[in-house]
Amino acid sequence: MGVTLSENAARHVSNFLSKRGKGVGIRLGVKTSGCSGMAYKLEFVDQTEEEDLVFESHGVKVVIDPKSLSYLDGTELDFVKDGLNEGFRFNNPNVKDQCGCGESFNV
Predict the structure, then answer these.
(1) How far apart are CA 100 and CA 36, in angstroms?
(2) Phi-psi region of 29 (alpha: psi -120 to 50; beta: other; left: phi over 0)
(3) Residue 89: helix, strand or coil by DSSP?
(4) Which of 100, 101, 95 lies closest to 38, judged by CA?
(5) Which residues are registered as beta bridge partners of 86?
(6) b/e map of 41-58 (b: 16 or more CB within 10 Å)?
(7) Quick check: 10 and 58 in contact, CB under 8 A?
(8) What digits encode the pLDDT tens for the residues 78-92?
(9) What is the average pLDDT across 43-57?
């Protein structure tokens, strides 16, 4: 299955990478954190590592470490604007529960 980006997220990442002047894509991962156990990691990637899994969505590379894939498989990363707020939203079908603030989850 892998991980995908919505058109809005891909456009946002592409624009940012263009302004930044370097980078091959975006890295998604998970870390132990928060009140529900896991939290998302999101960063721009300048180069991939040998063990990385690379997916492409709307022309943007999505890089994931193998350990995170079991938590993120099937996830769509979206970029949404809600009033004055904007940011990435993880639409993850693996989430069983998340904290009230939406910063952490468990599977």
Answers:
(1) 9
(2) beta
(3) strand
(4) 95
(5) 81
(6) eeeebeeeeeeebebebe
(7) yes
(8) 999 888 889 898 888
(9) 94
Indicate the residue type of 47: Q
Provide the pLDDT confidence category of residue 1 given band limits of 50, 70 and 90.
confident
What's the predicted TM-score (pTM) here? 0.82
| pLDDT one-digit tens code per residue, 11-21 | 999 999 999 99
**β-strand partners of 61:** 25, 56
Contact 13, 83 (CB under 8 A): no
Task: Give just the sign of the alpha carbon dihedral 97, 93, 70, 40.
Answer: negative
d(CA 6, CA 103): 20
- For the segment 59-76, the average pLDDT, to the nearest whole number, is 93
What is d(CA 99, CA 107) in angstroms, rounded to the nearest whole number? 12
